[in-house]
């Protein structure tokens, strides 16, 4: 059961085709097919089956895929831990962040961190909450910057930073705001901010029209253009509030306090520990538990 076979299988699971998996891995299609077939023989059950022109996971394959991703993540973390143990200042760091944290928090943190430790290799995965917490569970990420970790994710909160959620809209929309009828501009399913907005409206038995846009930037731009109001982090709209393109709407029960969390899995690599120490020294962050 080699790493190459696991990578071929997870690539097929992710893409749904041997051709796309081969393109992702820069190998031949025959190499991918052979690797998946060999892995199925070792596991003892079929892992994929035909689905039109592509492939899909069998129930056994779907069950196995989550374990395969964790094994691959652990192998990567093991390599990073070994390199970091030899020289933490020359190791690698895998970060994952939700879009607002990546836009508002990471640039300054990474710039100052790289100024101190320029030889650390840093990779950042940005996505909705479901994706970044999945990255932590699968060991693809050393550290996640997001909201509160969901139940069931093996996670340890290392630091927190205040984060205030507000409802914003253009001045014209804000002037005529009504909770049940003014449209709301929202992120895609899987976004933590969207889940918070939907829970907020449900708690007040409000069902306003919704317009779904595909990114945090698009939501902010849509609200500024007058498409409706949006629930966003105040950190994300400082420029728009300052120049008057957006104003804070006087919505009931607002603002909401939803702190940012820096969260790690059960163990930290030596290089990740250096980043955590840097983070807790940054303005606004306070340690939650000793790393």
Outline = globular
How many angstroms separate the termini? 34 Å
Major beta sheet, specifics?
6 strands, mixed
* Spatial order of strands in the largest sheet: 4-3-5-13-6-14
Overall number of structural domains? 3
Query: Which fold name corresponds to the CATH topology of the largest domain?
Result: D-Maltodextrin-Binding Protein, domain 2
CATH architecture classification name of the largest domain: 3-Layer(aba) Sandwich
**Average pLDDT reading:** 90
* Rg: 22 Å
Helix content: 40-55%
String of helices and strands = HHHEEHEHHEHEEEHEHEHEHEEEHE
> CATH homologous superfamily of the largest domain, by name?
Periplasmic binding protein-like II
Q: How many E-type strands?
A: 14
CATH class of the largest domain: Alpha Beta
- What is the number of helical segments per DSSP (H or I, 4+ residues)? 12
Give the oligomer, counting copies of the same chain as homo and different chains as hetero.
single chain
> Which class do the helix and strand fractions yield?
alpha+beta
Measured by DSSP, the beta-strand proportion falls in 15-25%
Low-confidence stretches: none
